[in-house]
Model the fold of this input.
Amino acid sequence: MKIRWLVLLVVVIVLLSYLSTNFTTLNPKLGLWESAGQGNVTSGTVNIPGLASPVNVTIDASGVAHIKASNMNDLMFAQGYYSASQRLFQMELEALLASGNLSRYIGASGVASDQAMRLIGLPGNAWTLEQAYIKSYPQYYGYLQSYSEGVNAYINTTAASNHLGFKLLGIQPFQWTVFYTLCWQEYMSWSLTTGAAEPLQSALIYNALGYQNATLLWPYYPYYTQNVTVVPGDGTVNGKNLSQLGVTPKEFWSQNWYGPNATGVNTSLLKTLSPIIRGALANISDPFGMPGAHGLGSNVGSNSWVVGGNYSSSGYPMMANDPHLPLTAPSIWIPMQLEAPGINVTGWDLAGVPGILIGHTPTTSWGLTTPEGNSANEYLETLHNNNYLYNGTWHSMAVQNYTLAGKSYSIYYTNNGPVIARNQNFGISLNWVSSQPSFDLVAELKMDQSTNFSQMLSALENWGSPPQNFAMATLHHAGYITAGHYPMIREVVNNKTIDVVGSRSLLNGSNPAYEPVGNVPFSQLPQATNPARGYMFAPNQPTVGENYLHPFVGGFWASGGRAQTIYHYLESHQNTTIQDMMALQSNVSDYWALMFTPYLVNALHGMTMNQTETAAFNQLSSWNYTTFQSQVGITVYWYLTAEIYNMTFDKVYSSINLSTVPAPFITSAIHLAQTDQNSTWFRGNFTTLVREAFTKEVVFLGAKLGNVNNWTWGRVHFLEIASPTGIQALGIGPISIWGGSHTVSVGSVPRALLIPEPYVSVGSSLRTVASPGTGQFYGVIPGGPSENIMSYYFSNQLNHWINHEYYNMNDQKTVAVIRYE
Amino acid sequence: MNKGIVAAGVAISIALAYASLFTIPYAFGAILFGIPLMVLNRKYSVMAGLIIGLGSASSIYLLYPVSTVSQLAGIVQQIIGIPSAALIILFPLMFGLIGALSALLFTGIRENLLMRPSPKVVHEKE
Done:
């Protein structure tokens, strides 16, 4: 062969080799195809350096791992190893997101998110918390370290880099540390914190519409709250209430809590601050964050209820919980059992965090929902250059500098917290309780080790941020406590000082009178045990009545539709059974529709209708208020209310530049339909409005969906369980789904005039029903333990979840036994 | 060429092909298994290189369930827009092609450098 041909061959080989570097992910052995081979779980032994004693991991038919170790540190180590084996890519992606380092993976498109995370203070808070653990809880810090070592033991195996996400991005996993676990804890805390956005949003409404309209749209206590607070009764907790301070609830709640007396901020000044308030809202928004996690009437809610032994058919307490969170593929939860001397707990663990957050022991059970009272407040700061005014004196702001993607950024701090927005001489600072160490993991692990009710209560004294409604049922007790840190602001009413929770608007940051005076003492937190009426429930409605000792001025409660359904169901189901608990969890009736539809139907009576309108009207008037996929009535109702909203409330919000603020509507509309059908909010005539909206709706739906009989909810209402990567192919759905925004089994969608509606993305992230007294424990998640989309265990529980079925957590066959040694 | 040497060259080549697939993520690992094929002539070294490269890389798929490979290819197709069949065959094809060219190159080198033909001897009739 001639030399020139040889040279040519060399050139071609070099070129092909260079080209081939783009296809490494397609290598059949070392590329992404390895994921295709990781779907099965097989028995065997895994050698893991770092364990003191062997650990057995039994995988049952529902995919739940039962991890049994001979000591606590090995248990945490094994949990870390197992969690990483199932969810390493998810854990690392979430850790980067929470620590403000996402741009390391995805480049410039992650910078805005990283800025928000650092501005809010997640990585800084995590670092402070880690130091506090080392100092105050070395034993628990040791558990955190063991967990991290377990994660890293897995990362050091070749299997770690085979996770599909790493392959697709062409990157290697980084070593895990305690810091990342705490960052994710901070992220979850932030996602469920009330008070970060709400006072800003209500201040915008107040500025634009005035006090009367602000309280009409967003009353301090939602309409129809009677009988449905978490703690039954008028608000008295452990014998203490507001009246004992010499102020009646009526006097207290008739105050203008937006005004200068309450906030120290002049009303005319506040009106000029709307642009900076909008800026603050934008700056703390995370483009990759949980949808709807913050804001008035946010659609991240949850359900829980307990039934006492005096109300159940078995004579033992029961508990049900389904936290509504963004539904992701994989789920944020990993189901598992952890067992070692002194601990035997089964439930759901947040990927990346040790322990079990929601679950049960053989004698105790608990679940979590979010109370909507402020654990963050915003302050108006008076600034000059790099100084802030406090108590009549100028002080230098602290500054923190950092670099992202080659650019430098700075965060300035006043005594109240980071300045999240600034416009010349005014700024807004964020005061969030999570800037103080919150030893939630101590509480969590003590709950995991609990054997009775008093141990659970004692454990929760360590819970800080975010405040949560803990539903608890043990062998003989049932109850609730809203545990966590609620900063109190000292207000004066009728010359009496009252320590309230939160505010409706910006507080004056220059005036020491509006500084927090401490947190609500544990014994005074909303709580009740073994209620006489036999049940309690906590689906994000007001936690406690108007006579509460520390009134929730900053209480931005859910509308209460789910609370109404649960209340009426439990009230009519004495001798409640486990099956009743499950049936309630799968309830898809819309209580607000039940209240509103008769007014709509009444307005349409007597209207001259064409054939299509008549058919649609018949569907609406005969509707039973359920939201199954086969129902037509819900479609007619939903788009009718969407048209009404579009023609009235939304027009007002748009005209005053409030379209980006989640707007209150349904309960205000029902209230006005009951009390003032000539309201300007209904353009002066409810009947005319409804008829016009109905005509428009029928034309719209007819054009999009054809014959009225085809207007089924399942054609417009879909669920999408998205991948955190945002890659649609790695998610699940869209799937036609039941439910609505106010149903217990939720399927939240905005009131949009779109076919289909925007996909449901938030829902029951897990469902559990527990009765420790009878040893009955059931649960299900919309997915599975694995993040490998090729694995059976990626979505093995999904169909059960969709069909409102459960796994008996006590009775599953073993499919594999893995020994870590 | 001696049949035993040819067989040994092919066997070593196959072993090297699998070794590179299990250790080198890049398709240019195929250059390695082309080297022993220099014992073949040009035509057969190219054919052997292509077959060994394509065959060894494709055979790795047998480690996984066919249905999951196909499903995964479908998912990746949605992400990067390359047809799923092409996604499956792309790496083996590249691996085989580089292997074939490598084998040809080393055969050429052998022919030119190691085994230059000896001067022609003409035997005349006595």
Q: What stands out?
A: Residues 591-625+632-711 of chain A form one domain. The CA atoms of residues 206 and 212 of chain A lie 9 Å apart. The interface with chain B takes residues 1, 3, 5-6, 9-10, 12-13, 16-17, 19-21, 23-24, 26-33, 35-37, 39, 168, 727-730, 789-790 of chain A (CB under 8 Å).
